[in-house]
Amino acid sequence: MYKSGAFLIGDLSLISVYSNKGCCTNRFAENRPCAPMFHIRLLIVDDHAFFVRSLMPPLEEDERIEIVGVARSGDEALALARSLRPDVITMDLNMPYLSGLAAMERLEERGRLPGVLVLTGVDEPSTVWAAFAAGARGFLRKDQITDELLLSGIYTVASGGVFLDPQTFRTLQAGFPATPEKWDAETARVAGLSPEDQALLRYVALGLDNMEIAARLHLSPKTVSNRLSLIYRRLGVASRSQAILMALRAGLARLSDAELP
């Protein structure tokens, strides 16, 4: 259910849906999401025309959202993102020529990654983590989409927050290893990092790209990249997504930390 701009899923963790930079208007019922008070330029990326058409009614009705383009592949998404400069991209993952993951990684490398809300039918934990590692700020399964969830996801990533639909969150929780000994060992490795490296890893876990981390820590992007490589070796992980998962399990960051200091 909706509660104070967040999803409260049973007695599980609280997942923030908004950064609360906007405010509610009477355009929405009390139990519907708050809309931020700014204009959102939206690029839709999906190769299924019927699915794209199904998204249009709630988006076209909302005066705060302007659909600036539709891309049918990752290649088209790169070109349109460069020319149209959207604030938010809804991104499918499985597309011809260039996948959504690859498109996000290339946009992030260029330092031009807008807020990305992944809309996909795939929900394996590894895919979800890979999407966030590639720069996504939201993940919404296609079979979970409602008008409210779609708008919530768009508003959230536009505000700099992190969005997960309830079913995807449950999938991630079920995918966490249940071995206390492994958790203790991972927590110890994270705790063994210097305070500076822990701060860097926390920003990674919260979905910031290297350019954003560099700006926050007053470092060069190259320095951030080099330090992350050392951190990954110290943690014994092979990828950014594995480091994110370890940081979350160790309590270094939470998905509810939508507002960064």
List the helices and strands and how they pair.
Elements lengths: L1 E2 L2 E3 L5 E3 L23 E6 L3 H13 L3 E7 L2 H11 L3 E4 L8 H10 L5 E6 L4 H9 L4 E4 L5 H12 L4 E2 L1 H10 L4 H12 L3 H11 L4 H8 L3 H15 L4 H10 L12
Parallel strand pairs: 4-5, 4-6, 6-7, 7-8, 8-9
Antiparallel strand pairs: 1-2, 2-3
Describe the structure.
The protein is of the alpha/beta class and 261 residues long. It folds into two domains: 2-174, Response regulator (Rossmann fold); 177-249, Winged helix-like DNA-binding domain superfamily/Winged helix DNA-binding domain (Arc Repressor Mutant, subunit A). It is 46% helix and 14% strand. The protein has helices at 49-61, 74-84, 100-109, 125-133, 147-158, 166-175, 180-191, 195-205, 210-217, 221-235, 240-249, and strands at 2-3, 6-8, 14-16, 40-45, 65-71, 88-91, 115-120, 138-141, 163-164. It has a six-stranded parallel β-sheet with strand order 5-4-6-7-8-9, sandwiched between helices. Helix 8 crosses helix 11 and helix 9 (210-217) crosses helix 10 (221-235).
**How many individual helices?**
11
CATH fourth-tier homologous superfamily of the largest domain: Response regulator
Helix content: 40-55%
Uncertain runs are 1-36, 257-261
Name the overall outline: globular
Q: Strand fraction band?
A: 5-15%
Q: Please outline the major beta sheet.
A: 6 strands, parallel
Which class of secondary structure composition applies to the elements?
alpha/beta
The domain tally reads 2
Q: How widely separated are the two ends?
A: 27 Å
The chain-level mean pLDDT equals: 77
- What is the H/E string? EEEEHEHEHEHEHEHHHHHH
Main sheet strand line-up: 5-4-6-7-8-9
Give the C-alpha Rg.
Answer: 18 Å
CATH class of the largest domain equals Alpha Beta
What is the third-level CATH name, the topology of the largest domain?
Rossmann fold
- What would you say the CATH architecture of the largest domain is? 3-Layer(aba) Sandwich
Number of strands: 9
